[in-house]
Amino acid sequence: MDSLIFVLLLTLVSFRLYSIDHYSFPWFVAFLCESWFTLTWFTTISTKWTPAITTTHLPRLFLRVGEGELPRVDVFVTTADPVLEPPIITVNTVLSLLALDYPATSLACYVSDDACSPLTYYALLEATKFAKLWVPFCKKYHVQVRAPFRYFTHTNSHSHFPEWSKIKEEYEQLDRKIQNACQKLNPVPLVGEYAVFSKTERKNHQSIIKVIWENKEGLSDGVPHLIYISREKRPQHPHHHKAGAMNVLTRVSALMTNAPYILNVDCDMHVNNPKIVQHALCILMDSKGEKEVAFVQCPQRFYDTVKDDAYGNQLVALPMYIGGGFAGLQGIIYAGTNCFHRRKVIYGLSPDYDIQNVKKDFGFTNGTLSEKKTMHIFGTSKGFAESANQALEETTFTPNNNLFKSLDLGAAYEVASCSYEYSTTWGKQVGWLYGSTSEDVLTGLVMHTKGWRSEVCSPDPMAFMGCSPQDNLGQMAQHKRWSSGLFDIFLSKHCPIFGTLFGKLQFRECLAYVWITNWALRSVPEICYALLPAYCIITNSRFLPNKEPGIWIPTSVFVMYHVGTLSEHLISGLSARTWWNNQRMGRITTMTSCFSGFLDIVLKRLRICDTVFEITKKEQASSNDENAGRFTFNESPIFVPGTAILLIQLAALVTSWWRWQQCFVKNELAYAYGLGEVFCSAYLVLCYLPLLKGLFGEGKYGIPSSTIIKATLLAFLFVYVCNTFFIN
Ligand SMILES: O=c1ccn([C@@H]2O[C@H](COP(=O)(O)OP(=O)(O)O[C@H]3O[C@H](CO)[C@@H](O)[C@H](O)[C@H]3O)[C@@H](O)[C@H]2O)c(=O)[nH]1
Ligand SMILES: [Mn+2]
Known about the structure:
two-stranded antiparallel ribbon; Spore Coat Polysaccharide Biosynthesis Protein SpsA, Chain A; binds uridine-5'-diphosphate-glucose; eight-stranded mixed β-sheet; binds manganese (II) ion; alpha/beta
């Protein structure tokens, strides 16, 4: 079906090219836009063409390593705002990780708190007490969902185990304590353990690193190590948002546990499949995977989602087709969470090395890194250089390796300081890379450019589950951040095209990356195309062929595209309503969020202002909210272009209606002439129905009048320009 659409698009473009007699301004604009759509469609098809799925077989892992010899894994959790990311959610994520079905002696959990919040610290301390009950309980009864808040809302006491009620009570107590502390009923006093937080400001404080729990006895079914880190922040030092936090986690963990594998999750992504580490290791430790695979990405799925995906952000059908397609090429993109990395790849290693080359790469002399070179790459910490040496030398996995040192804090403060990265390669060649708010895709892309592959791991049950925005404001801010971050990558020196020309990025993987990184840019031709029908109606001109057989080409593209996407959704087990919501949100998001993202990058490149990482609000859905799925609005300029486009379509429809009446009076049939354009305009209004409702809504459900005024001015300007400069 996709190929058929492609052929039709090619036909449309050639038809335009050959109908010289039709040449006019709208015809030309349509030609440009449609050529762009055809190119985009080509990259989509190429991405989807050879999908792949990886299946993992746990028994085979244990043919390779004994159950007691499983390698160390360091787990990183990031949180950055106790209000937008309630500590109870972070705590549940951490509890689910501590309770992984994996030897506790080989796990260590590091939590980065970019808000430097005593609340988060308090919540983690309390959670550790509960973990001592929760972890053995989960392991004893093979609980599947290891985040207590999900577990207890979905099970009831009859069906369960003797301790069930007691543990539930304990959890409720923990929950209450944390909620009380959050609501300032019982604020955390900044004395004793918490005294370090007393002179801190969110963006101005020294590092705070605390070993909350150490598995001292080395019990493999105990509770794994838990370490709290709030890296140093100073107003004059850029902190690089999440990427910066990840790099601090990498360095601190290197000094403590230095595991060869790193799992990273966002604070809202709890474990849904307790054996996920073993599944990922099946891929990472596979004899081929060991040499080729840089990272293993598990899908992002969400719980308590808005019915029928009203805001089009559940990412179910898209990852299935596009993600599966990526997987069949050089590998899936890195999505920032639910991902297993190799430490040495994070340190910048290329895949086809032999150890001699590495030594050259990194300036080894006589078996160890030359001091000057190490300092240049990794910074001045001696302890870190030593641990990096070990991590890099470890060419293939050897069980019983003893990279573990101790949870000693001494050296850790040095590597968590905000000036540590100056004149090193952190964020440039080593670690999570800086320069884009989609640091994840950038970091993964550079690994692919080095020639690494990546794999998707999606065992049943789903590996992780998280929160997704519960309103359109969150969804739009998120899409804006992604589209701008991705476009930033396209314009940077890490552009996928260079990756293919000068690096080892495979050609079709490059096309797939080009497709994904151009999300923001796609808003420009889409907006032009959306303005075309209105332009034509207002100026009484045409951009669609108006005679047979020409008119059949765009009509069949339209029909085939909708049938195609609908069937994809139905095959993925989604409702037709979900399909329509995604379809509609696709149009709205591109012309609002992605266009804002595009403007942001233009401004950034002109050095007028920089992009920021706006954190997505995490909340648990209230189950019987009758307004779920309804659009809310605020003063954000993000709504201006969308509202303007809607008003322009409405103006066009009114114009055509008025003209139709005139014809009717004169008994002419001429009104049938521009039917195609009217249909397009009406279709857009249908897509924009949520905004149309917003024009008349009240309170947060109404578009603020300042936005309406700005949009009306833009719409008037458009109509004026059409009438003055282009009317025939
Ligand atoms: O300065 C910051 C900003 C964010 N975060 C953390 O980054 C994570 C992701 O932030 P979130 O607001 O949840 O963004 P999402 O849009 O949900 O994130 C997706 O997109 C991001 C890139 O834009 C990736 O980093 C994420 O992993 C991916 O889940 C959260 O754990 C935050 O706590 C920090 O640690 N420090
Ligand atoms: Mn998130």
